[in-house]
């Protein structure tokens, strides 16, 4: 069967114009003659190419060149090829090469930009491979090469009504997945069997490469993809699914189940967790720092005798409690490590990490918690997958 453009269409021409106009305006403000966007098969980078081309590549690397008058021009690699990219009418030209840096230099030379000021998205954060950088500078000896990662991410931080609708659709997809999965959360099934059902249901809902993290009490304390442990009456089961949805926008989401009545220990803990996360989400207004969410959670946890694994927003030796999300799983902002001001209608993903001092604490509460996308609004954050009262986040079966 012949594939058509509509088979690979995710966003509208109007949204394409918004994105390219925003990037070209940012280029002009920052004195850039061209922008080179690097994408790789990494949940932090591959959505960058998708954002500008409407081409969602699962594996390998690819690059896009955008100038003030030309592009986007896609430089595809020989690992994945460009047959799918050619289905996107966002892309002005597709080229296939095993030496992308040299090909980018050739494209820019053809555009009379061999001595221009070129911004590279991914130069300073590992998105642009060093070998490709060497190829590029060898081919553009007179050009000025600068990092443009933050310029790109500032543009991607701004959501339109269409991009918000896409993320809302992804949350609706996840709710359908969990609704279908719930019938399998019962005594006698093994964790790995339940994880297999989650994978199957995700694929049947159009999710291309779901990551399913699954654990049950006593929790292991490490990322678990399901073991042969048999789920029993009284267990708490956590199912965490993260991936890009069918429309290419990302969601990380965790739902917990009590197999039978919720034990008093977990009912009490849930009350503190819910209160803490609601306090954090309430602090997520335009103009606030992203770290205010984390600090609000930490304050409520502290009052309940719970310690968050958090020191300060700049600490680069702690896992993320919050990060930006959209066409990539992690983009723009993360705390700890890269705090910044939140914008109206920005979307971030939250999953605060509790600090465990003993193995016993880990076994009781290791994967107990909340994870969801949050839309920043003037009245505080809005849960995008959970209901606003969090009744769907922890379900008694």
Automatic annotation (TrEMBL):
<dbReference type="InterPro" id="IPR029149">
    <property type="entry name" value="Creatin/AminoP/Spt16_N"/>
</dbReference>
<keyword id="KW-0378">Hydrolase</keyword>
<dbReference type="InterPro" id="IPR000994">
    <property type="entry name" value="Pept_M24"/>
</dbReference>
<feature type="domain" description="Peptidase M24">
    <location>
        <begin position="167"/>
        <end position="376"/>
    </location>
</feature>
<feature type="domain" description="Creatinase N-terminal">
    <location>
        <begin position="19"/>
        <end position="158"/>
    </location>
</feature>
<dbReference type="InterPro" id="IPR036005">
    <property type="entry name" value="Creatinase/aminopeptidase-like"/>
</dbReference>
<dbReference type="InterPro" id="IPR050659">
    <property type="entry name" value="Peptidase_M24B"/>
</dbReference>
<dbReference type="Pfam" id="PF00557">
    <property type="entry name" value="Peptidase_M24"/>
</dbReference>
<dbReference type="InterPro" id="IPR000587">
    <property type="entry name" value="Creatinase_N"/>
</dbReference>
<dbReference type="GO" id="GO:0004177">
    <property type="term" value="F:aminopeptidase activity"/>
</dbReference>
<keyword id="KW-0645">Protease</keyword>
<protein>
    <submittedName>
        <fullName>Aminopeptidase P family protein</fullName>
    </submittedName>
</protein>
<keyword id="KW-0031">Aminopeptidase</keyword>
<dbReference type="Pfam" id="PF01321">
    <property type="entry name" value="Creatinase_N"/>
</dbReference>
């Amino acid at each position: 069967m012949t594939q058509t453009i509509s088979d690979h269409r995710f966003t509208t021409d109007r949204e394409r114009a918004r994105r390219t106009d925003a990037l070209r305006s940012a280029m002009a403000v920052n004195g850039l003659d061209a922008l080179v966007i690097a994408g790789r098969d990494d949940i932090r980078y591959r959505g960058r190419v998708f954002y500008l081309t409407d081409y969602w590549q699962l594996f390998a690397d690819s690059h896009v060149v955008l100038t003030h008058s030309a592009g986007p021009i896609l430089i595809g690699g020989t690992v994945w090829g460009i047959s799918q990219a050619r289905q996107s009418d966002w892309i002005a030209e597709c080229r296939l090469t095993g030496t992308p840096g040299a090909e980018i230099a050739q494209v820019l030379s053809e555009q009379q930009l061999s001595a221009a000021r070129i911004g590279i998205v991914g130069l300073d954060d590992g998105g642009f491979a060093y070998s490709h950088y060497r190829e590029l500078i060898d081919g553009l000896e007179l050009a000025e090469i600068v990092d443009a990662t933050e310029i790109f991410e500032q543009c991607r931080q701004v959501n339109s009504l269409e991009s918000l609708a896409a993320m809302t659709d992804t949350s609706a997809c996840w709710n359908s997945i969990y609704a279908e999965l719930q019938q399998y959360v019962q005594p006698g099934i093994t964790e790995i069997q339940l994880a297999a059902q989650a994978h199957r249901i995700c694929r049947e809902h159009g999710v291309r490469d779901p990551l399913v993290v699954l654990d049950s009490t006593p929790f292991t304390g490490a990322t678990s993809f399901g073991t042969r442990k048999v789920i029993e009456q009284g267990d708490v089961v956590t199912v965490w699914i993260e991936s890009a949805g069918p429309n290419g926008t990302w969601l990380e989401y965790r739902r917990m189940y009590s197999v039978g009545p919720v034990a008093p220990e977990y009912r009490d803990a849930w009350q503190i967790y819910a209160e803490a996360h609601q306090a954090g989400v309430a602090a997520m207004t335009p103009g606030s720092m992203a770290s205010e969410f984390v600090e609000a959670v930490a304050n409520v946890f502290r009052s309940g005798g719970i310690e968050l694994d958090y020191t300060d927003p700049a600490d680069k030796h702690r896992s993320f409690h919050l990060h930006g999300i959209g066409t990539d799983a992690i983009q723009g902002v993360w705390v700890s490590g890269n705090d910044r001001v939140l914008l109206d209608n920005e979307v971030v993903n939250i999953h605060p990490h509790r600090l465990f001092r003993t193995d016993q604490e880990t076994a009781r509460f290791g994967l107990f918690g909340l994870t969801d996308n949050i839309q920043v609004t003037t009245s505080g954050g809005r849960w995008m997958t959970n209901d606003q009262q969090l009744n769907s986040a922890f379900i008694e079966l």
